[in-house]
Amino acid sequence: MQVSVLSGPQEIRLEERPVPTPAADEVLVRVTAVGVCGSDAHYYREGRIGDHVVNGPLVLGHEAAGVVVAVGSAVADTRIGQRVSIEPQRPDPTSSQSRAGRYNLCPSMEFFATPPIDGALAEYILIQSVFAHEVPDEISDEAAALFEPLSVGIASAQKARITAGSSVLIAGAGPVGLVTAQVARAFGATEIIVSDIDESRRVHASTFGATRVLDPAVDDIRGLEVDAFIDASGAPRAVVDGVHAVRPAGTVVLVGMGGNDYALPISLIQNRELVLTGVFRYANTWPVARRLVLAGKVDLDSMVTARFDLAHVEDALNADKLVGSIKAVVVPGLSKEKDA
Fold first, then answer.
1. Percent of the chain scoring above 90 in pLDDT
2. Among the residues of the chain, which ranges form H helices?
């Protein structure tokens, strides 16, 4: 099979590797679509994210969908032929966090495309059967791949305690900010304010759920009064301004990966009794994602702005630099489809 490999700093190479054989609890999936995440681009350009350092060849990609083509000995062969969305993680089921239902916080987690674990930019991948979630034919391959960033939005909205009538401020109108705005709308929020310094992203926000769009360079963010603030930007100023915008007893949820340390208005957090928390990936979100997409409450297909095959993964990783780009998707069989 063909595999796209990050073989060095800003160096992507297409390799031939043997098709893997599933272990007893695994399924072999023929990959049909892989979304490109900002973390993929960061590993490509910087070689690290925080403590996670690329020290050898690495297959990127953790937003994936495909078709089950083979199963391990402990998996029913009725799964062969199923279209699936991949939840790209392998926790230790015996860890205390996993047993508590927080398997995303498992200290022994093996997560796709986080060094040294290979990801999904290949023609075939293995995944434990429980993390290969069946999707109906009404959902496209690309939308099924984007259940992963949608799950971040779902986890964020759940942590923000968004419900009918809520008001929320979302900083950052990248892919995660846009899906979070859609989830907030689906959860019943009536005021969804999205801020971003980039004009093209603000235009996208109006399309994907925002009831109001602001430019933090000119608009008064701190003067807002919302029930919840979700930061999907990672920008220190956006976080501080957003905290100021939350009314007493509200919630602050940090999603964007920014600096390790920066100052927060602690007295304001105390005096308003704000709940401040983070989101690290997700747990138990795929069933919710499937329901939201099937019901038409979240539009993932319209977020795809470019498609590439495995031979052009480097172009996909740089697609975020293009004006108007939201989400690039790699389709391993794309060149074959064009030839046909």
1. 93
2. 38-46, 96-99, 141-145, 147-159, 175-186, 199-207, 236-244, 266-271, 286-294, 313-317, 334-339
The pLDDT score that the predictor gives to residue 261 is 84
On whether the CB atoms of residues 252 and 242 are closer than 8 A, the answer is yes
DSSP assignment of 114-162, as one string?
A: STTS--S-BSEEEEEGGGEEE--TTS-HHHHHTHHHHHHHHHHHHHTT-
Phi, psi of 106 (to 5 degrees): -60, 125
What's the predicted TM-score (pTM) here?
0.96
Q: Is the dihedral of CA 92, 97, 102, 108 positive or negative?
A: negative
Q: How many CB atoms lie within 10 A of CB 312?
A: 17
At 140-158, the pLDDT tens digits run: 999 999 999 999 999 999 9
Q: Please, what is the end-to-end C-alpha distance for the chain in angstroms?
A: 19
- CB-based contact 13:121 (threshold 8 Å): no
Looking at residue 50, what is its pLDDT? 85
Instruction: State the amino acid at position 66 in one-letter form.
Output: G
Q: Please, which pLDDT band fits residue 131 given cuts at 50, 70 and 90?
A: very high
Contact 194, 211 (CB under 8 A): no
Q: What per-residue confidence (pLDDT) applies to 226?
A: 98
**CA–CA separation, 283 vs 131, rounded Å?**
11
What is the C-alpha separation between 169 and 47, in angstroms, rounded? Answer: 32
Asked if 271 contacts 296 with a C-beta cutoff of 8 angstroms, the reply is: no
CA 139 – CA 33 distance, rounded (Å): 13
Q: Rounded to whole angstroms, how far apart are CA atoms 241 and 18? A: 51
Say yes or no to pLDDT of 338 above 70.
no
